[in-house]
């Protein structure tokens, strides 16, 4: 009796493993990774993708889309775990505390890891606690004016002239104190030598209608916030922050084109594993993420948000994070900004 029971259990377990292998192989083939023998093993039960912000935002929505692409390939089940708070710090801290077995991943904007080390006197984590796997998407930031600024102002040179002729009138919103849009707009005003009142909001959402309604004159925030309003004329994008013109608004010159060479930043959102993850775990995640990110329907889905899907190798991501950390440090020091002062 005992012997028969064990055989049935073994047969059941073997059937379960075969089913997992079949599901994994089918999903891998769908991603075009059938040539990678490392994926011919049973997949983990569950992957948690931690997002340090509430459901509904761009970061959360993108993580969910990629999570669906990884279902049945990276793990049988994918859970998006929203851990909002402390401006994204809780999300990073959650990853730091996780095991390095590949069952927990973080999707986060750059600022938590590139800006915060310069703007906070103390953080509950450091870059050494995370392993960069791949950038997911990236966005330019836009400097925008609304009806409170005369219609003839269509570029930065004209905006500077208007601000100097109307001291005290320039009010510039941003998605949060210490965010990259805040730092870019602050440094722009500093270089241009204009008076500008900083108006931080809790995200872009509350600030956009303030610009459109003329309550504040301008705003610095992700490009996707403004593409529709720029097209209808309700707002005017005066500059974008990328290294070249955005394909979403090709008629708008960059900061650099308009003489602000220092202000070149395309902010990324990236996938991370705990630093304790082995090379094999990192490589598996890297290969599967880049395959998922490279599927055409991903780019098509996020195009209305004005973002670019940007899969990278681990090495490329690490180099980008180092460069952007140095850039962020220069901005924070130039402005003398402290988030916890």
Which labels suit this protein?
about 350 residues, 2 domains, globular, alpha/beta, 10 strands, D-Maltodextrin-Binding Protein, domain 2, disordered N terminus
Topology, element by element:
Layout: H1 2-30, E1 46-51, H2 58-70, E2 77-82, H3 89-97, E3 104-109, H4 111-114, H5 116-119, E4 130-145, H6 156-165, E5 171-174, H7 180-192, E6 197-200, H8 208-212, E7 218-222, H9 227-232, E8 236-240, E9 266-274, H10 279-293, H11 296-302, E10 308-309, H12 314-335
Parallel strand pairs: 1-2, 1-3, 5-6, 5-7
Antiparallel strand pairs: 3-9, 4-7, 4-8, 4-9, 4-10
As for the CATH topology of the largest domain, it is D-Maltodextrin-Binding Protein, domain 2
Q: Kindly report the average pLDDT value.
A: 89
Characterize the overall form. globular
Q: Give the radius of gyration.
A: 23 Å
Q: Kindly report the name of the CATH homologous superfamily of the largest domain.
A: Bordetella uptake gene, domain 1
What fraction, in percent, of the residue positions are helical?
40-55%
In DSSP terms (H or I, runs of 4 or more residues), the helix count works out at 12
Order of helices and strands: HEHEHEHHEHEHEHEHEEHHEH
Count of individual beta strands: 10
Q: What are the segments in which pLDDT stays under 50 over at least 5 consecutive residues?
A: 1-29, 34-41
Largest sheet: 10 strands, mixed
Global structural class? alpha/beta
Could you tell me the strand content as a percent range? 15-25%
């Amino acid at each position: 009796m005992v012997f028969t029971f064990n055989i049935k259990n073994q047969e059941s377990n073997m059937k379960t493993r075969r089913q997992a292998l079949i599901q994994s192989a089918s999903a891998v083939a769908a991603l075009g990774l059938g040539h990678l023998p490392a994926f011919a093993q049973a997949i983990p039960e569950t992957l948690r993708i931690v997002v340090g912000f509430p459901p509904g935002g761009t970061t959360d929505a993108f993580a969910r889309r990629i999570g669906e692409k990884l279902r049945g390939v990276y793990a049988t089940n994918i859970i998006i775990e929203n851990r909002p708070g402390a401006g994204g710090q809780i999300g990073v801290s959650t990853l730091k505390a996780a095991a390095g077995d590949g069952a927990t991943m973080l999707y986060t904007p750059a600022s938590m890891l590139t800006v915060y080390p310069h703007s906070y006197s103390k953080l509950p984590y450091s870059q050494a606690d995370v392993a960069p796997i791949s950038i997911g998407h990236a966005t330019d930031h836009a400097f925008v004016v609304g009806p409170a600024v005369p219609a003839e102002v269509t570029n930065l040179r004209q905006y500077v002239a208007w601000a100097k002729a109307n001291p005290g009138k320039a009010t510039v919103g941003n998605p949060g104190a210490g965010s990259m849009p805040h730092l870019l707009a602050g440094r722009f005003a500093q270089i241009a030598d204009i008076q500008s009142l900083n108006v931080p909001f809790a995200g872009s959402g509350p600030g956009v209608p303030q610009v459109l309604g003329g309550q504040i004159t301008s705003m610095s925030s992700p490009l996707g916030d403004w593409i529709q309003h720029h097209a209808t004329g309700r707002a005017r994008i005066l500059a974008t922050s990328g290294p070249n013109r955005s394909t979403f608004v090709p008629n708008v010159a960059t900061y650099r084109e308009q003489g602000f060479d220092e202000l070149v930043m395309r902010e990324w959102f990236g996938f991370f594993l705990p630093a304790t993850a082995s090379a094999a775990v990192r490589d598996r995640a890297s290969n599967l993420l880049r395959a998922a990110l490279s599927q055409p329907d991903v780019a098509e889905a996020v195009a209305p948000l004005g973002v670019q899907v940007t899969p990278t190798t681990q090495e490329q991501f690490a180099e980008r994070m180092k460069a952007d950390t140095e850039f962020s440090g220069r901005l924070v020091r130039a402005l003398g900004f402290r988030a916890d002062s």
